Amino acid sequence: MNSTVNHPAVLRVGIPEKDADLRYACGFTAPDPLIFLKTKRKAILVVNAMEAPRARRTVRGTVWTPDELGLTDERRSSRREWVLALLKREHLKKIAVPHSFPFGLAEALRGAGIRLVLLDEAMIPARAIKRPDECAAIRHCQQAAAAAIRKAIRAIAAAVPDAKGRLTLEGRLLTSERLRTMIRHWLLDWECEGPGLIVACGAQGADPHETGHGPLWAGQSIVLDVFPHHMHTGYWGDMTRTVVHGRASPPLRAMYRAVLEAQRAVLAAIRPGVNAARLHRLAVETLAAHGFRTEIRKGRPVGFFHGTGHGVGLEIHEEPVLGSRPIRLRPGHVVTVEPGLYDPEVGAVRIEDTVVVTRQGADRLANCTKQLEWGGQ
């Protein structure tokens, strides 16, 4: 495949529930594979007969079924036949396809004399700039995250340590697993799911993507990373808070103060045109000014060893990334700001908010407390 810039026809094939670009491009979602062809003059969606009525109510453009493409019998169930029939009907011998295009289908199309060219971008560029309705959908998810985190903090604050220091709630151990289940139930009130939620205590939180397991402990950091996925719009939110039941150790308090100041500095610096790499350096430099540097200790990374943020939309991680790449922020970008510090001997601190870049700066999509110590004092 060769790269191209001006594409007379773009073909996408996949399951929109799993392919954010496809869902964005066609404006329709379904659990089964479909085909979307966009030319300079028209948009055509091919779906099975069961999905056709809903698609015709939803999509701006033409909706066809395999029957309407003239396919019968076993050809009706073959996506390869769908594509070939569609391209024949549209008199197309050259199409552009995304990076995710199925290899087997690409080979079959080549064998049928179709020339394929590869789209330049791995993600549809327009997805990075959110429309007002997209911002509203993300704000809803972010508010769901904030509401769930507030309830989780109240549960942690109300817990009672047992003789070993393990937190108990209503006579039962309060574990990572139990609190995650509670958070998922709270998210359902907002029509959101909570896949992959993080409730990680102590040294577990020093591995940033460890979801957490076992009892929660008094005096240790508890990282609550909640990223709701709306069951209908498909958009995400992302928020993290770090709390302690009772008193935190002096080293943990120092980590918390440094991370909080780093996040404040980055949030204050966000504006259109600012370089994402500069924002990341600002977070790193702020943490360093507090005496926290990143190093390898006993074979494990310690300090701040991930990006400062990432885009949020139809995917939980998308462009733009607040890291080492020199990306200029633009109004409509929706990004997280999530500096963190990780030390398995002390614990972990991550504070994360999601904001939309405006012409004036950054608009935080939901608010939630940033208090470290709760209950048991």
Within CATH, the superfamily of the largest domain carries the name Creatinase/methionine aminopeptidase superfamily
Helix coverage percent of residues?
Answer: 25-40%
**Number of helical elements:** 8
- What amount of the residues lies in strands? 25-35%
The largest sheet is: 4 strands, mixed
Distance between the termini: 64 Å
Question: What is the third-level CATH name, the topology of the largest domain?
Answer: Creatine Amidinohydrolase
CATH architecture of the largest domain: Alpha-Beta Complex
Quickly give the structural class.
alpha+beta
Q: Could you walk me through the main structural features you see in this protein, from its secondary elements to its overall organization?
A:
The chain has 2 domains: 2-122, Creatinase/prolidase N-terminal domain (Creatine Amidinohydrolase, Chain A, domain 1); 129-374, Creatine Amidinohydrolase. Helices cover 29% and strands 25% of the residues. The chain has 8 helices and 25 strands. It has helices at 20-26, 52-58, 79-89, 103-111, 132-158, 176-188, 250-269, 276-289; strands spanning 2-4, 9-14, 34-39, 43-46, 62-64, 94-97, 115-119, 160-161, 167-169, 172-173, 192-193, 198-201, 221-226, 229-230, 239-245, 295-297, 300-302, 309-311, 318-322, 334-337, 340-343, 347-350, 353-357, 362-364, 373-374. It has a 4-stranded mixed beta sheet with strand order 2-3-4-5, sandwiched between helices. The protein is elongated and about 75 Å long. The chain starts with a strand and ends with a strand.
